[in-house]
């Protein structure tokens, strides 16, 4: 019940408005509410959770019709009803109103939750206990604030055109990277935290070394020997080749720096292009670069590579990997290269380490340890070591390699150790056998996650403006999530592995990434069984779906799971059970 004070005279008050059919009560010109409040919704009398969930579901769908693009929906619920960790104590999921999952059905995400304060709503009185003129307790009640989540995209296939070794190549961008391959996070006008961190690292190192940024055209594609690259971890590409490119390669002069020079990502592909990009008589030797280290020898040949000068390359790299919150199939790498006299590599490594440590220590107050390890030792009971595919030894160089590890103080009893890069020393090669090369590779995405407190790598790639708005002007404050307690959904899949074939788990995870649009956050092997007569192996996996920035519904997940079953059956030749 709400009494209208004299100060609010002139406002429009509506009665008998059905909250599940809001658009029917307002003319189109008035369907632009900035805020919609629903305090303590209830179906009436002794209705159980099922009826109240139905009421909330219809209410949220109704709000979607009349709310502005950046509007908010406030829903106050009694203690325990919401079913989120904000409720203390938290009810069992099946016994709650599941408010976040119901809101997702209308495209809303939970952006904030705080205690409901009766005094904040002037003139409001809680009444209606069991449909009677009686008040009810609001102790422990919570106000849930929902906003619109961005819809899931439906990206069209894209052809990328570039130039490699004097030939113009075009190739189909793997579907998993269509929304990531040309985001330009490292451009001059970008406020993305990966660029801010990169610029701070470069600025600090420039005080110790003469520094030169590499602005030469470095292709996203690399041509390598099949035996030298782990095939299960590379995104192999079958490009179309034009033997005689003209003197004006596509995109040259419009691309910024060395990130995407000579590359045109703007053209969508049609069915003919798709067939051309997939045709090939033999296995391709081209793959999306998995590290900037693949460019080292090319840079040495093309530049005036003077001893003591630090050369800097930066850009995105791509790898197939298992699914986890801190394992990145695409990330921004910065590579520092320095030619030194043989025998002085150790001194250069130490100087690089000191400067990187100084920069990260100034950005990460909780940094308690910064080490350089030749191997990753067996973790002690009080530590958790996270070694990502992004910092594993690269086969491109015959070298000595060390891992850059950082340890941060955490609120719990366990210390978190993360490998955020690597430093390697290698011979300069036939160009100058008197010199050695020292390379320091830093995974900017992992560093950004550490500094800004981002727990999920996918958030770095969101197109939701609420992410970048927290880093305007290069600020690197702690990140505040705009999607709280997103619902998760679990599905299992069981199948027989083909006889005489080794199961490719990395490919299994990659298909899950692609089909689910990066919403699979965990894949767990539940059971393995070998048939006693045939010897054939059966595997059972559990997939957990959850979005970090969008509204994900149970129906969407069911469709993804169905498509996933079809894809693994076709691509991995398994037999579903």
Short description:
Keywords: Aminoacyl-tRNA synthetase, ATP-binding, Ligase, Mitochondrion, Nucleotide-binding, Protein biosynthesis, Transit peptide. The chain has 577 residues and is α+β, with helices and mostly antiparallel strands.
Descriptive notes:
The protein has 577 residues and is α+β, with helices and mostly antiparallel strands. The chain has three domains: 22-148, Rossmann fold, CATH 3.40.50; 158-241 and 284-376 and 386-469, BirA Bifunctional Protein, domain 2 (2-Layer Sandwich); 489-576, Alpha-Beta Plaits, CATH 3.30.70.380. Helix content is 20%, strand content 26%. The chain contains ten helices and 22 strands. The strands form five sheets. Strands 7, 12, 13, 14, 15, 16, 17 and 18 form an eight-stranded mixed β-sheet that branches. A four-stranded mixed β-sheet has the order 1-2-4-3. It has a four-stranded antiparallel β-sheet with strand order 20-21-19-22. A hairpin with a 2-residue loop joins strand 5 (159-164) and strand 6 (167-172). Helix 3 crosses helix 7 (444-452) and helix 9 crosses helix 10. The longest helix has 19 residues, at 345-363. Residues 244-283, 376-387 and 390-398 have low confidence and may be disordered. Keywords: Aminoacyl-tRNA synthetase, ATP-binding, Ligase, Mitochondrion, Nucleotide-binding, Protein biosynthesis, Transit peptide.
